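Below is how a single chain appears once it has passed through the pipeline. First comes the sequence as given, then the structure the pipeline wrote out for it. We keep one example in the README because the format questions we get most often are answered faster by looking than by reading.
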Amino acid sequence: MRIASFNINGIKARLPRLLEWLEETRPTVACLQEIKTQDEGFPADEFEKIGYHAIWHGQKSFNGVAILADGVKPVETQRGLPGEPEDDHSRYLEAEVNGVRVGCIYLPNGNPLPGPKFDYKLRWMERLRAHAATLWAQEIPTALVGDYNVIPDDKDVWAPRAMASDALMQPQSRDAYSRVLADGWTDALGTLNPRGGVWTYWDYQAGAWQRDHGFRIDHLLLSPELADRMTGAGVDKEHRGREKASDHAPVWVAVAD
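Resulting structure:
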């Protein structure tokens, strides 16, 4: 079983690239972030044509998440994170696929800081940790995947000094992420690449892609029941270099059935 995550940065603008990636790599489950469309604008029919069924949680112009499954319908188990009823951002969607629980995450960026956006990011991360603990207690094989907007360590960025003032690298952001891992979740890419140097995002500006000035913010967190079955994880980096690509590359983890 291959579980993937892809911040598509606008599903309408990147649809040809997304369909191309799905057909070439054929993940069992694909979690999408920043679909940037309202529910009625989601192109479900295009995925049906190539054998994928979808659920989605859209929002006009920004945010938005979706879960696609190859040949089966994802069974929705959670829409939005508990804990802040007034939060209307479309950032979390969860489903059951082939006996595995999959949470699709688009964590707040948090810039500029200090300020309300950074405070919201930290609150959201605490809410995520609380919900993750609830999932943990159920002992269901679970993957929490997506764009976490956190660079976990200096080894996960091409130049730590260049990002030092960004919300993605603040000690509070890193500590919140570390606390989730300390609760027993396995960072698939981090575990298999302990020396770092693996990027999942390259900015459109300043020739970042051409110079390989990237960093790792797309993560695949596995519960013990799923981590024990992990057989590999990686980044489909080549797809970042294609015409009209997203600024993120897809990430994936493979687990034994």
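The domain at 2-255 is CATH 3.60.10.10 (Deoxyribonuclease I; Chain A).

See the next section for the split statistics.
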